[in-house]
Design a protein that fits this description.
10% of the residues lie in helices and 30% in strands. It is mainly beta and 325 residues long.
């Protein structure tokens, strides 16, 4: 009995460290055995795949639910005029859904999104937005282990439909019927830092982006806000604000958001290899949305993403550890 009891204690402590890298001499084991806020890296699912929604949305038997009108955030950014003008009807039925899930609790899981834009081009997307293709179907690659979560987008000499593939891992609360309304209230997030250990690998800097997105929501109006911070970027861009619309009702990103993209400075791009990112959440948010001091939005969660343009290139991030302390 004593041996079994000791084993149970060890197993419980190890299980509580999900979402953290294996301890090494330069990264000792956490002193606290309190479980991290973030799910273990092996708990993953696709968008449109919760207990309430199910994993079949997008098939002929369960068409994709699209809002009408599709846009609620104005003024519309120029590349969404086609969507918001209602000139073209969004498809609601696809050959497959590309849905998957590895956890019993869909809300305590990393949501893996894979978008192979552009929607209007036939023959490139087998499934709906955020599940355009399977998670390991060219040009996407997903590797999920107890130690890390790796997202890769890569173009080689094969046909890729001239898309701009985007892949992300998101942990977010308070959406898709989740009984938990947020990760933190605005007051609860004060002084908290997002700590992120990653490995980056890209073939070259041409049309390659790595970013961390912070998701917020006004608890009174439901208005969503995102700080979309690029840590790898090929192009200079001054601070940029846009209104982004996402009309897919059962998506975790519905209905879109007011987005701020902090200034992109290519010389500040992180190098390939191991990197550590530390973000003071409230301070970062207030820089770009000073109105948050009055709105006091909820913090919903974090999205970690890689993207490349329509060029021959590869871009990958391995998430080794993530915490919010």
């Amino acid at each position: 009995m004593r041996k079994q009891f000791v084993f149970l204690i060890i197993f419980t402590v190890l299980s509580a460290c999900g979402g953290r890298a294996t301890p090494t001499p330069d990264r000792p084991a956490p002193i606290s055995s309190v479980p991290t806020l973030f799910p273990p890296f092996v708990l993953i699912r696709s968008d449109f795949c919760t207990g309430i929604i199910g994993c079949s949305e997008g098939l002929a038997s369960n068409p994709l639910k699209v809002a009408m009108p599709p846009c609620v955030n104005f003024p519309v950014t120029h590349w969404q005029i086609w969507l918001c003008s209602l000139v073209e009807q969004l498809p609601t039925i696809y050959p497959v859904t590309n849905s998957f899930s590895s956890g019993l609790d869909p809300y305590y899981a990393w949501i893996i999104s894979s978008n192979n834009e552009f929607l209007q081009t036939d023959g490139c997307n087998s499934g709906p937005p955020n599940q355009s293709l399977g998670p390991n179907e060219y040009p996407f690659s997903l590797k999920s282990t107890p130690q890390s979560l790796t997202l890769t987008v890569a173009h080689d000499l094969r046909k890729f439909c001239g898309k701009i593939p985007y892949m992300s891992a998101t942990y977010i609360r308070g959406v898709q019927g989740d009984a938990k309304s947020n990760m933190f209230t605005w007051r609860g997030v004060q002084g908290k830092k997002l700590e992120l250990d990653i490995n980056l690998a890209r073939t070259d800097d041409d049309s390659a982006w790595f970013r961390v997105l912070l998701h917020f929501r006004d608890p009174r109006t439901g208005q969503r806000y995102i700080v979309n911070k690029d840590y790898v970027m090929p192009d200079y861009l001054p601070i940029y604000a846009m209104s982004w619309n996402w009309p897919y009702i059962n998506s975790f990103q519905y209905p879109g958001a007011k987005i701020i993209i902090p200034a992109r400075i290519p010389a500040d791009s992180l190098k390939n290899g191991a990197n550590h990112i530390s973000i003071n959440l409230a301070d970062m948010a207030l820089i770009y949305f000073p109105e948050f001091s009055a709105i006091e939005p909820d913090f919903l969660g974090v999205e970690i993403a890689v993207e490349i343009g329509p060029v021959i290139n590869s871009n990958s991030v391995e998430i080794l550890a993530i915490s919010l302390d």
